[in-house]
Amino acid sequence: MSAFARLRPTLAVALAVIALDQGSKIALSRWLPEGERLVLAPFLQLVSVYNTGAAFSFLAQASGWQRGLFLALAFGVSAWLSWLAASPGAERMERFAYGLIVGGALGNAIDRLAHGAVYDFLLFHAGRWAWPAFNLADSAITVGVALLLWHYRRPHDTPRPASQE
Questions:
Q1: Contact 38/32 with Cβ under 8 angstroms?
Q2: Which of 22, 78, 108, 157 has fewest C-beta within 10 Å?
Q3: Among residues 79, 118, 128, which one has the least CA distance to residue 102?
């Protein structure tokens, strides 16, 4: 099997994540004005916010240099994971997880290139406690990392040494 044939499912997952992520961001940003909130449930709101930082608004207050760093990380990690997905040793679960991570990273990179910040719209909360707002790209990255952790923690068959006859 060629490297491209091995990479194709990963790219398909990544493209699906990008399409769903960007479609949801475009629809919600047009429908819900920036700074507005819509209560969907006692624990869930739709919000319209832009985050110049990374997860949990990490480096959001920096002077702007973080945009280049986060773009370089998104493209670098995406290239590295794509290379891993194309390798002969990658298993199906790994390739799927890589696709989720690459799609999420590139979905957020598109936002950074277009707006200088990432559009977030999901806000979960309980009383005064609230999880930082996030989007579908963030969810795909989280699920992809969780799948990789699960995959690497489970036992794998180890190849047996060739007999010396």
A1: yes
A2: 157
A3: 79
Q: Is 138 assigned a catalytic role?
A: yes
Count CA within 13 A, CB hemisphere, residue 132.
13
Concerning whether 21 is annotated as a catalytic residue, the answer is no
pLDDT, tens digit, 9 for 90 and up, residues 82-136: 999 999 989 999 999 999 999 999 999 999 999 988 999 999 998 888 888 899 9
Report the C-alpha gap between 109 and 118 in whole angstroms.
Answer: 8
Sheet strands (E) in 4-151: 37-41, 44-51, 118-126, 129-130
Question: Which residue among 21, 111, 120, 157 is the active-site one?
Answer: 120
Which of 157, 137, 141 has the alpha carbon at shortest distance from 149? 141
- The DSSP bridge partners found for residue 123 are 45
At residue 11, φ and ψ (nearest 5 deg) are -65, -35
Cα(105)–Cα(137) distance, rounded to whole angstroms?
Answer: 7
pTM of the predicted model as reported, rounded to 2 decimal places: 0.85
pLDDT tens, position by position, 12-56: 999 999 999 999 999 999 999 988 899 999 999 999 988 876 655
